[in-house]
Amino acid sequence: MKKRTLLMVLILVNVLLPSACTRRRGAPADTVLIHGRIYTVNPKEPWAQAMAFREGRIVAVGSDKAIAAYQGPATRVIDAGGHMVLPGFMDAHVHMMAGAAQLERISLNDAKTIGDFQKLVKDYAASHPAAKWIQGMGWYYSVFGKKGLPDKKFIDEVVPDRPVFLSAYDGHSSLANSKALQAAGITRKTPDPPSGTIVRDPATGEPTGFLKEAAGPLVARRIPPPTREEERERLIKAIHYASSLGFTRLISAGADAERVELFDDIRRSGGLTTRLYMARFVNPPISPDVLKLLEESRTKYSDDWIDLGTVKFLLDGVIEAHTAAMLEPYANDPGKGQLYFDPEKYKEGVAQLDRLGFTISTHAIGDRTIRLALDAYEAAKKANGHAELRDRVEHIEDPSAQDIPRFGQLGVIASMQPLHTTPNDNNLNVWAGNVGPERAQRAWPWHDILAGGATLCFGSDWPVVTLNPWPAVQILLTRETPEGTPAGGWLPKERLTLEQAIQGYTMGGAFAARRERTEGSIEIGKLADVIVVSQDLFKIAPNQIGQTKVMMTMVGGKVVYRDPSWKD
Ligand SMILES: [Zn+2]
Q1: How far, in Å, from the CA of 461 to the mean position of ligand 1?
Q2: In angstroms, what is the C-alpha Rg of the chain?
Q3: Which member of 240, 321, 438, 540 has the greatest number of CB atoms within 10 A?
Q4: What's the pLDDT band for 25 if we cut at 50, 70, 90?
Q5: How far is ligand 1, taken at its centre, from the CA of residue 324, in Å?
Q6: pLDDT tens digits for 354-396?
Q7: Which residues contact 151 (CB under 8 A, 6 or more apart)?
Q8: For residue 529, which of 498, 560, 568 has the smallest C-alpha distance?
Q9: d(Cα 429, Cα 444) in Å, to the nearest integer?
Q10: How many angstroms is it from 150 CA to the middle of ligand 1?
Q11: What is the pLDDT of residues 83-106, one digit of tens each?
Q12: Where are any strands of DSSP class E within 471-526?
């Protein structure tokens, strides 16, 4: 009889508590989030209203009614007020140190004409009279006409008296004014550095100020470096900025891991509010010293907050400057671009690092480079017998048709940057003109790569473009500019669904960072990394998604950002 009563109670409990994942209730939750429209990215239970957190983890997901059982007298209640709630976003390709520096410089992304460009430079110079050097980033080649030929005279006309150094939006070229060339001692007699070009006037041989690839650093290294304290302060600002945009993890694609102690210092003082998976740049052949350094830093940093288990190769340049390596010549240039490393040495380096269990990412933009990266990963997999790769190809701007299905076949992660695809003048004229009409049909083919069974993850390449993911989600769905051109989208067959786009920004990034068991979706046992956003992405037109604001960001159960206008 007693047994039977117990059974009845169990049945009753089961009926009363909705199936909603309410296992092991135990003590009340530290925090509950209620009245949400939660898109969990968990295919078994995609939608929920509420969830409970304990000790930084999600302990229950379900209806408001089910989660009420987790509310004790000391439980903090966050009322989402019907707002959409998502797993924390992840940017799979950032450069935080560079982004932090960019927060204080001229941003030229919005310049469409030489007039816009000159106004931005002139206004900045006027409002920063004490700056000894003026720096900026983000100009597009198309600002300077269809051939994309920047010239120092455009800066000299507005700032003749101080050195000015402005990087292109892709970071691969730069433009210096006369004062900056002078400060760097660059004259018509200066030879081109290895892997770089000092562009010269064909008539006079005078440097035009346009500096490609490794020629830029000839000027950049003359700029007085910031102090450590200045760097620390602006990095804290950059981390806060990332949290305000909804990021709970960032994958650094280089030039940050080298400064890991600075990030660690910020963590120890409580200022690190986003998790980091950081790649150190490596060049083949990998020396024993570099290997030792990689091993040591991985041993030291491999927790939920800072993980140095990945490395990055920079294998080619960019299409706009004809420096991405192509299988066939450019449409408007006899060259095919260039690989930065000997292919065999690169493949050996990949195999060696794969054997040691590092995940590898490779910057590969041209079709030749993309193929080489896939070949190297395939060979490493064969040699080392890993059942599952977590290697990534970064950018993938123009793959050959036969390589698109290989991402899925080999299990190689495609790490792509949606805003680079913006069908503006730069892409439709300079980019597409350089590759020609046939290859332009495969511009950033994220849908085809996904259809081949691959994992996609998305990022910004900040500070190349804005770190804000919401305009990027929009373009994944529309392939249009924010103004709606071209109507119907550039290569509309490559448009994604909203679910696919969110997947790439959450589980895709978690998978790339080997964190899919603890992050990337709202599920019991995972880390309490969630965001509340201003609008229901599923109920608005795709061209409104870019306007989304983040109302709250929570990492490990702690609220790390809250929009000042939002009261829960
Ligand atoms: Zn990058």
Answers
A1: 5
A2: 25
A3: 321
A4: low
A5: 14
A6: 999 999 999 999 999 999 999 999 999 999 987 777 999 999 9
A7: 144, 175, 208, 209, 210
A8: 560
A9: 16
A10: 22
A11: 999 999 999 999 999 999 988 899
A12: none
The residue written with tokens 């790439």 in the block is 504
Q: Which two tokens stand for residue 336?
A: 């095919």
- Please provide the distance, in angstroms rounded to a whole number, between the alpha carbons at the two ends of the chain: 49
- Reported residue count of the chain is 568
Place of tokens 């061209």: 543
Q: Taking residues 205-218, what's their average pLDDT?
A: 96
Sign of the dihedral defined by the CA atoms of residues 189, 190, 191, 197, in that order: negative
Separation between Cα atoms, residue 477 and residue 452, nearest integer Å? 18
Q: How far is CA 415 from the centre of its chain?
A: 8
Residue 78 C-alpha from the chain's centroid: 29
Question: What pLDDT, in 10s, does the model give residues 429-442?
Answer: 999 999 999 999 99
Token pair in block for residue 31: 């925090």
Q: Which tokens sit at 486?
A: 């071209």
Q: 95 C-alpha to center of ligand 1: Å?
A: 7
Give the predicted TM-score (pTM) of the model: 0.86
Spatial neighbors of 302 by CB under 8 A, at least 6 apart, are 308, 309
Residue 402 CA, ligand 1 centroid: distance in Å: 25
Region 136-159 average pLDDT: 90
